[in-house]
Design brief:
TIM Barrel, alpha/beta, eight-stranded parallel β-barrel, 12 helices
């Protein structure tokens, strides 16, 4: 199975290819390894809502070594130390929650880039710099290959989405359906016209500024309709979601079979 390099993932996203991934919520490096070998393009290690701590980042990254997927980290907040920890350990990119303005998006991008373009601290004795093997020029190039994913999760973000999309270094506008529908006081109503209008605005802004539109979907049944809207960076379910659904299906199948044979 051919591994997707961080730079290749960003190139594919920028070229408008459809790439698929899943969220890692369980905090289990073994679950990360299983997902990494499933044929996905990317994995999202969730440090905002997931069960695992930031201290386990290295184990999750090492768990992807035999798979094809690049690991992107959702930091818990738009704060410089959170980016530094994820990127110095070798993450392929960062997803940033709760961004509402172009200024906040620009701040997030600055944490991913070295001076003079950004404010990321320079350290060569890190895993991302191969513990001193990479010099200053190589780490500058590697920083330019990082994927910047900005979440669009409320109505203010939707109102500012064109300005957010215009920020250099923002590669993906990623919709969080649960947060967005809750902010609209229509929790979970993903067929509501107001929500669908918001999706259109996100995809239109992404198209105008040559960025990708991304979204988290519950399953394959939602895929066609969202691809037709213009989404290309697709998250399907999560490690916890797939495990829970699979075990419920297994248990229900057993109960049905046992009842039929009784």
């Amino acid at each position: 199975m051919q591994r997707t390099s961080p730079g290749e993932l960003k190139d594919r996203v920028s070229a408008g290819e459809h790439v698929v991934g899943t969220f890692l919520n369980l905090g289990s490096p073994l679950a990360t390894e299983i997902c990494s070998t499933a044929g996905l393009d990317w994995l999202l290690l969730d440090l905002e809502h997931g069960a695992g701590p930031e201290a386990d980042l290295l184990a999750h990254l090492q768990a992807t070594g035999n798979g094809s997927a690049s690991l992107v980290v959702r930091v818990e907040s738009n704060d410089r130390p959170r980016f530094a920890r994820a990127l110095d350990i070798g993450a392929a990119g960062v997803m940033v929650p709760r961004v509402e303005t172009a200024e906040e998006a620009a701040t997030a991008v600055s944490y991913m880039q070295y001076p003079p373009a950004g404010t990321r601290g320079v350290a060569l004795m890190t895993r991302a710099a191969r513990f001193g093997v990479e010099g200053y020029d190589p780490i500058h190039r590697s920083a330019s290959q990082l994927l910047g994913v900005i979440q669009i999760e409320n109505e203010r973000a939707v109102a500012n989405v064109d300005a957010i999309a215009a920020v250099p270094g923002v590669d993906v506008l990623f919709v969080g359906p649960s947060d967005l529908t809750f902010s609209m006081a229509i929790p979970g109503q993903t067929r509501d016209p107001r929500y669908l209008d918001a999706l259109d605005k996100v995809c239109a802004a992404a198209g105008r500024h040559h960025k990708a539109a991304g979204i988290l979907l519950r399953g394959i049944q939602e895929l066609d309709s969202h691809i037709s809207l213009g989404f290309t960076f697709i998250g399907l379910s999560s490690d916890s979601g797939v495990l829970a659904a699979g075990m419920r299906e297994l248990a229900a199948g057993f109960r049905l079979a046992a009842k039929s044979s009784a």
